[in-house]
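Board notes (copied after class):
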Amino acid sequence: MNIDVLFTNNELNNFEKFFDENQFKEYCDTHSFKGKLNQILLVPPSYSKNENKTFLVGLGDDDAIVNFYDIGISIGSKIESDSVINFLNLDKDKSLVIDGILYSQYKFNAYKSEENSTINSISFKDEDTFENDIKQSSIFWVRDLINTPALDKSPEVFIDKVKELVDSSGIEVEVHDKEWLEENNFGGVLGVGKGSDRPPYFLVGKYNSKAKYQVALIGKGVLFDTGGYSLKSPSGMETMKTDMTGAASAWGVINLVARSNVDIGLTVYTPIVENMISGSAIRPGDVLVTRNGKTIEVMNTDAEGRLIMADALAFASEKNPDLICDIATLTGASYVALGLDIGATLSNNADLETKFIESSKEIHEIFHSLPLFDGYRKLIDSDLADMKNTGGRFGGAITAALLLKEFIGDNDWVHLDIAGPARSDNRKGATGFGVLSLYEFFKKLN
């Protein structure tokens, strides 16, 4: 199907070459379309001289602030079949509209016996959408993997999906098993994984290792989180198949960076575990020895993400990259503080953190800085070990980040806690939040 998208302000002008003007104005009046900001009206092909279906999109007053990404989402939600789209009289922000249209096509019906999982194929006349298409495929891969139930998402399945994603991308994938983790002192990963019959893994992805600027990206990969012996409530467990969002996101980012030939080096590190309960699971009060030799007293087995990320951060820091980033659904405290739409950032480099936040605004994701306040470090002091894995009820996103800080060495570091916006408003479906922000940020580092 061919679709024209025509943008107009509230004066409703410049339509004479597409419609019979009087007939068109009558149609607009009938449907109360005034060209107001974010108004969208579908006009049937019979009104168009080229016999195309047409979306009229209102931009409001000349000084109106227009979110072209959200407009794209609104347009795309009204498209019900494969389509070729032609933009009319829009000279800027086409890429954001395109992204919105493409992302709106997502659906995850793999487990519904009577619903179609086929995604509409959308192309754009006279537009170069190479980057948009790569972003769509990466985001949809991330969402699909996060949405997959834990029963069907073993570590081995995760690994196979990663290999399929990055095939022919130039990314080198290393798969390290439990024996390697034991030999290399990954006590945090091994400790969290003790309760599961599915053994843990550690995945490394390498892109452009000879580039001048090198980035390490760590993603939390807890494939399912019961909370361990610090057991979650039944309702708290309902969404815990998504606790590997950070790991999926990290691989989505490196796929984007590699296929877009971004001139940085990027290495992804993702520990892959399940946090389950069994006779071999770790208990509150146990002490784990991490990759860099520091010890952590486990006061709460449901604060497991920081344990596996401690090992990954320590391992990454040994390479002395120019920047370490991590992304994780780490703390409930972050979305208590910022709600369900805003991601938290904490960093030891204010300039890089600001640069990241500004990059995220370009693709309409919202991150907000929380203070990496060293005065709270005493809250994770342990009488038994170097530190404990929880700091009490207050400032939980900060104390979790302060624990991670113990494992980054002297490297610049940006930490992303996306526990709130990682899931859609109904708290069930994955969003892919953070992938595009990191991608835009990394493009500005070269």
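Comment from the instructor: The chain has a mean pLDDT of 94. The CA atoms of residues 160 and 190 lie 21 Å apart.
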